[in-house]
Structure of Protein big brother:
Amino acid sequence: MLPFETTNIFEQLPRFVFKMPRVVPDQESKFQSDELFRRLCRESEVRYTGFRDRPLEERQMRFQNACREGHTEVAFIATGTNLQLVFSPCANGYSEGCDFNKEQGKVHIKSCFIMNGVCVRWRGWLDLERLDGVGCLEYDEERAQIEDTLLREQIERYNQRLRDFEEKQRVFRAQHERHVEAEVEARKKQSELSPDRAGSASN
């Protein structure tokens, strides 16, 4: 335990800021074993959830405009899971994440994101008139490998900072102990000299 009376000790210690990891250590295992992922990885009914208080025609227009801008809101009907999907904007009816040309009257969407610490890909389609369709979640192995590498690097940086912190604490304690020993030695010498001075004064 560090001495309480030392006033400037905390100025000598580094501040720790540990960012919450974006992903869990074993993403694939969690994707395969987690009950929610197991339900969402099966193709099931989905529905556009934006502007539910507006007329159908307006919602259809807003849905298509949002898709062309590269975002939309959908929900899995069976689980009630709502998702904000973000993907590449499509100016001419097609992009890597949004395709109006693949099937008439439908838009096909792919969106990659991190959910509950796991890299996943939403894949599905929605009817442009009914604003419902079919979708599912897939494990995004490529992105998961990238995030795993970033996670390991983050943990290593944190561990290195922790080792540096512990080393500084060790050095500080050693310096403090030497300082205390020097003070004790000085007081001991002073106490040894005091009786001689007292005897000289009495004579």
Q: What stands out?
A: The CA atoms of residues 120 and 139 lie 5 Å apart. Residues 141-202 form the longest helix (62 residues).
